[in-house]
Amino acid sequence: MRVVVVGAGSVGRSIARELLSHDHEVTIIDKQPAAMRVAQVADADWLLADACELSTLSEAKVDECDVIVAATGDDKVNLVVSLLAKTEFGVPRTVARVNNPKNEWMFDESWGVDVAVSTPRIMTSMVEEAVAVGDLVRIFTFHQSGADILELTLPPDSPLIGTRVGQVAWPQDTVLAAIVRGTQPITPSIDDTLEVGDELLIVTGRDVDEAALLRVLVDPTDDDGGTGVIDETTGLPV
């Protein structure tokens, strides 16, 4: 795979090194001479130029790359690079770094962004995930589909403690992707029993009612007086 990385700062260089270690071809672009630390990523091709210029992207042969990564510390630059890559060069995949969470709403298809990565948002999610028990924490959002990856640590008073996965009345468009128990990730089956402290990784569709999901996972009863658990004999919520 051929990848162009715009931004030769610590983030861009780290991305480039990882890609090179997986045998991908990488070109790094930056307009600041001080950022040209070629020896630190010696196997990459380097280009000292302004990536917001069409001539620069042409010189970097962006039209031949599979992915462009806009990883500068300037959100405006990352948006312009993504838009030019998508509209002028037809790059199949654009990944853009979001530096200011207030700008996240702009990083979508209208600006040519396929995947937006917000470092502050991810770090916030990791902090919340580390300390929150019984709260849904959004780990990641897929910008094209609108699907979310959510995490919840089951508290001691969850109605699902001791319940088999196959008995849980999950809301529509909700999938339990993994259970992390201690340090052990588990691929959930219908026969796995949920325990106190289990970290549940859940994938939800764009229109899922998170409040309803939280009621199933945490609240003793739902709005109808049920428990979010399916009776295996009748197949109905109990």
From TrEMBL:
Pfam families reported for this sequence: TrkA_C, TrkA_N
Entries under PROSITE patterns matching the protein: RCK_C, RCK_N
Domain RCK C-terminal: 137-219
Location of the RCK N-terminal domain: 1-117
Alphabetic keyword roster: Ion transport, NAD, Potassium, Potassium transport, Transport
Keyword flag Cell cycle: no
UniProt name for this protein: Trk system potassium uptake protein TrkA
